[in-house]
């Protein structure tokens, strides 16, 4: 059986949350049973690896499991499954959100739109010097979420939270994130970092979209979050993931800042396999959603990490 893959190709997978039975409009959650099945497939077909091992030769394709953002369920749900199988995971943590009551803005937005009063048919958001009005409720909630999210992405994180506060006050509704979507507390973060199966990585202070921000602002954000994670964990933080991670979410200043801060790798969400020639500060990743074991195996085949039968 021929393995149709470039020699030395590796795969970096991107997960967010391990949770079950929760509202998940952004498709961030994989159930514990399915995550366990994914890890079993990974162990069967590849060499479960850390980012530090990526450049080392391996007979089987290296597969790195990563998590973005720093949700509490990474500790409660993902770690026991990874530890039981001896499979390493890397968790990219947004340092400034540790222990935060308001959590991540996209989870607040999800609550806000879910509790929108029926009389409200649009939302007004700041845009450039003025404002933009976005119609709501004409289609699915998911489409509303995507269009509002797209506009908010252009703003700084503190401004996004201010907008959500203002809209929730105007509508007389809640914009608190769902309880299940809370970030790690600082003490949970320390527990996570202490697991032998876990490598902690940086993900900025506040999950800002870096692209286009002044170079110094990017650098301050990246360096101060690295220092905070190192202070809390007592470990060197050597790996980074760009928030959002697509071509439109970071620029050359971000890459320079990450490299000069001393990060050995930086992961994007630009899809691809990580071959031996990949730039260590622009590593491609593959997003994983709540796929069945069979669907996950089909993905591995499609990415040419395992032979097609
Ligand atoms: Zn993220």
Task: Give a quick rundown of the structure.
The protein is an alpha/beta fold. The chain is 36% helix and 16% strand. The longest helix is centred in the C-terminal third of the chain and has 19 residues.
Task: Present the secondary structure layout.
Blueprint: E1 11-15, E2 17-18, E3 29-30, H1 32-45, E4 47-49, E5 62-69, H2 73-85, E6 89-93, H3 105-114, E7 122-127, E8 130-135, H4 141-152, H5 157-171, H6 186-194, E9 198-202, H7 215-233, E10 239-241, H8 252-260, E11 265-267, E12 286-287, H9 293-302
Parallel strand pairs: 1-5, 1-12, 2-3, 4-5, 5-6, 6-9, 10-11
Antiparallel strand pairs: 7-8
Helix pairs in contact: 1-2, 3-4, 3-5, 7-8
Bound molecules: zinc ion.
Low-confidence segments, ≥5 residues, pLDDT <50?
Answer: 1-5
Each distinct ligand: zinc ion
On the 0 to 100 scale, the average pLDDT is 93
H and E order: EEEHEEHEHEEHHHEHEHEEH
Tell me the number of strands. Answer: 12
For the biggest sheet, the summary is: 6 strands, parallel
Structural class: alpha/beta
Characterize the overall form: globular
End-to-end Cα distance, whole Å, is: 9 Å
Helix content: 25-40%
Radius of gyration equals 20 Å
Strand content: 15-25%
User: Number of DSSP helices?
Assistant: 9
General description of the model:
- With 309 residues, this protein is of the alpha/beta class.
- The chain has nine helices and twelve strands.
- The chain has helices spanning 32-45, 73-85, 105-114, 141-152, 157-171, 186-194, 215-233, 252-260, 293-302, and strands at 11-15, 17-18, 29-30, 47-49, 62-69, 89-93, 122-127, 130-135, 198-202, 239-241, 265-267, 286-287.
- The strands form four sheets. Strands 1, 4, 5, 6, 9 and 12 form a six-stranded parallel β-sheet that branches. A two-stranded parallel sheet has the order 2-3.
- The radius of gyration is 20 Å and the shape is globular.
- The N and C termini lie close together (9 Å).
- Residues 1-5 have low confidence and may be disordered.
- The chain binds zinc ion (ZN).
- Zinc ion binds at residues 68-69, 203, 207, 243.
- Residues 68-69, 203, 207, 243 line the site of zinc ion (ZN).
């Amino acid at each position: 059986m021929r393995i149709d893959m470039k020699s030395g190709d590796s795969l970096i997978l991107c997960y967010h949350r391990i949770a079950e039975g929760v509202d998940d409009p952004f498709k961030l959650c994989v159930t514990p049973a399915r995550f366990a099945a994914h890890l079993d497939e990974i162990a069967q077909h590849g060499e479960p690896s850390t980012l530090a091992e990526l450049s080392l030769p391996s007979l089987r394709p290296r597969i790195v499991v990563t998590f973005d953002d720093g949700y509490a369920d990474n500790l409660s749900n993902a770690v026991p499954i990874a530890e039981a199988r001896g499979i390493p995971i890397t968790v990219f943590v947004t340092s400034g959100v540790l222990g935060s009551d308001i959590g991540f803005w996209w989870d607040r937005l999800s609550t806000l739109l879910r509790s929108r009063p029926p009389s409200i048919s649009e939302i007004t958001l700041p845009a450039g010097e003025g404002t933009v009005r976005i119609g709501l409720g004409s289609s699915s909630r998911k489409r509303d979420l995507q269009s509002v999210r797209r506009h908010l992405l252009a703003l700084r994180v503190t401004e996004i939270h201010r907008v959500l506060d203002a809209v929730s006050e105007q509508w007389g509704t809640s914009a608190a994130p769902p309880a299940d979507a809370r970030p790690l507390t600082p003490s949970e973060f320390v527990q996570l970092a202490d697991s032998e199966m876990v490598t902690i990585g940086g993900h900025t202070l506040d999950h800002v979209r870096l692209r286009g921000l002044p170079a110094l602002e990017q650098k301050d954000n990246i360096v101060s979050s690295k220092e905070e994670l190192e202070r809390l964990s007592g470990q060197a933080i050597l790996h980074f993931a760009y928030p959002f991670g697509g071509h439109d979410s970071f620029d050359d200043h971000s890459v320079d800042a990450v490299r000069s801060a001393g990060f050995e790798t930086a992961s994007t969400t630009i899809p691809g396999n990580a071959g031996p020639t990949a730039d260590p500060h622009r590593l491609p990743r593959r997003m994983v959603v709540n796929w069945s074991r069979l669907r996950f195996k089909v993905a591995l085949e499609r990415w040419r990490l395992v032979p097609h039968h």
